[in-house]
Amino acid sequence: MSALLSATAPRTFDDARRWVAEGTSLFFDRIGSLSPSDWSDASSLPGWTRSHLVGHVCANAEALGNLISWAATGVEKRMYASVEQRNADIERASGLPADELTAWFSRSADALDAAMDELTEEQWRHEIITAQGITRPASDVPWMRAREVLVHAVDLAAGTTFADLPEDFLVALGQEIRTKRGLSDEELAAVSGPLPDVVAWLAGRPHSLIDAPELGPWL
Q1: What is the pLDDT of residues 23-63, one digit of tens each?
Q2: In the chain, N or C terminus with fewer CB closer than 10 Å?
Q3: How far apart are CA 170 and CA 101, in angstroms?
Q4: What's the domain count of the chain?
């Protein structure tokens, strides 16, 4: 599977919009399968319950909506007012009832999707700045959202694994992460296994690979 992650075929804008739709549906299905008591259980992300994680994904939709507004109007609108506010909002969300979090997820995802539908081709080319301070075209926002809903659907620890994610998404994600980590083709080729496990390893998530070197945090 390493050859797939060494390829240079770019993901497309339409790919990203499709992955957002698939990831939103998958994430919604996963939280819908949880009982009220399940929400306070640990997610697979250190220090976060499932409620923390869902609150983060909801807030992310609204934050990306700020970037879409920026692209539409030309008026700067950052994702978050500050790191401190972002963290405080997630902590507050972790105490909300399951039904409120579920409704917030649905509402925020629908609002983001509707806002993206309204952008013109020219507006998609407008520059925005991510929470990491990186300047990117607004057309990268769907990819940013696709990563959130699909990867965090796995992080819910509610039965979904990387093997359940679209293969073309895994290829695109794996290519991006290996580039960010600066892994050479030789280093990647030394790790052999199924594509979902290789991408999980690259993303710093649990995997079943043998003798794969430990990687630091990603995203």
Answers
A1: 999 999 999 999 999 999 999 999 999 999 999 999 999 99
A2: C
A3: 27
A4: 1
**Ramachandran area for residue 159 (φ above 0: left; ψ -120 to 50: alpha; else beta):** left
Please name every residue paired with 49 in a beta bridge, in sequence order, or none if there are none: 42
Sign of CA dihedral 89, 94, 100, 105: positive
Whether the CA torsion 21, 148, 86, 115 is positive or negative: it is: negative
CATH number at residue 162: 1.20.120.450
Q: Which tokens go with 74?
A: 């030309």
215 domain residue, yes or no: no
Are the CB atoms for 205 and 44 separated by under 8 Å?
Answer: yes
| DSSP 8-state code for residue 212 | P
What Å distances lie between residue 8 and 5, 45, 46, CA to CA? 8, 30, 33
Side chain identity, residue 42: A
Distances 140 to 39, 116, 124 between C-alpha atoms, Å: 31, 11, 9
**Residue 193 falls inside a structural domain:** yes
Could you give the C-alpha distances from 9 to 72, 104, 136, in angstroms and in order?
29, 36, 19
Helix intervals (H) in the chain: 2-6, 13-32, 50-73, 83-93, 98-118, 121-124, 141-155, 167-181, 185-189, 195-202
Q: The pTM is what?
A: 0.95
Helix axes 50-73, 98-118, angle to 10 degrees: 20
The answer to whether 34 and 201 have CB atoms below 8 angstroms apart is no
Task: Determine the Cα–Cα distance for residues 166 and 137; give it in Å rounded to an integer.
Answer: 24
